[in-house]
Amino acid sequence: MVFPELSLTGYELRARAVRPDDDALAPIIAACAETGSVALVGAPVADAAGREFIGMIRVDADGARPAYHKSWLGGTEAERFTAGDGPTVLEIDGWRLGLGICKDTGAAQHTVGTADLEIDAYLAGLVHQPQELAEQEARAVVLARTCRAYVVFANFAGPTGDVFSRTAGRSAIWSPAGEAIARAGPDVGDLARTVLA
To answer: For position 162, what pLDDT does the model report?
Structure first.
C-alpha cells in the first residue's frame, strides 16, 4: 500500500519527525501483520546525525524503517529538510520498486537514475492541487515509459495543511506503456488498486 507525501502528519512542514519506533506506528504495524501487507507511509524523519528529511517509511509485520528520503525539495521545504541521496530500489517479494516523493516525479535526473536501476514498478506519495492533475498524469506517463515499469501514485484527497486547503485525490496506477489501469476518485477514502503481474 502506498500513501501520500507526509501522510502521517499531513503537509505540515513543522510537524515533529517520526521515529521508526514511535508508538503511533503500532496500529499500522498490526494491520500489516494481520493482512501480510507492506505500507509505505510519509512523514518527516531524522537520521542519526540529526538531519531531517521528508521521508517514506516502510511498515510491515516486523516494524518500521526508513525506505527513502525525498531528493528534490520544493517551495519552503529546504528551509528545514535535507535533500535525499537520489534514486533507490526497495525489493519486496522479488519485485524491484523504485521510490519517489512528489517533486521527484518531475525531475528528469531522478527519472533516468531510477530507470537505470531496472525497476518493475515506481511508487510515489504525492500532494497535488486539483489544477496540477494534468502535470501528475504527464509525469506518470514519462516515468512509466522511461522506466518501462508500472507507476503507482498515491495523492492526498481533502485538506492537508500549508497551501493545500484543497487537494486533487485521484491516486492512480499506470501500465509500463503509460496507460492508466486503475484510478481513484477525488474524495477522501477513495482507493486505486490492481494486481500487477
So the answer is: 79
Do you know the residue count of the chain?
A: 197
Would strands 89-92 and 180-183 be described as parallel, antiparallel, or unpaired?
unpaired
Interacting residues of 4 by C-beta distance below 8 A, sequence separation 6+:
42, 125, 126, 127, 154, 155, 156, 160, 171
pTM (two decimals): 0.96
Residues in Cβ contact with 184 at an 8 Å cutoff, skipping those fewer than 6 apart = 157, 169, 170, 171, 172, 190, 191, 192
DSSP structure class, residue 73:
-
Tell me yes or no: is domain 23-183 CATH 3.30.70.120. Answer: no
158-189 residue pLDDT tens: 999 878 999 999 999 999 999 999 999 999 99
- How many whole angstroms separate alpha carbon 142 and alpha carbon 188? 27
Domain ranges of the chain: 23-183
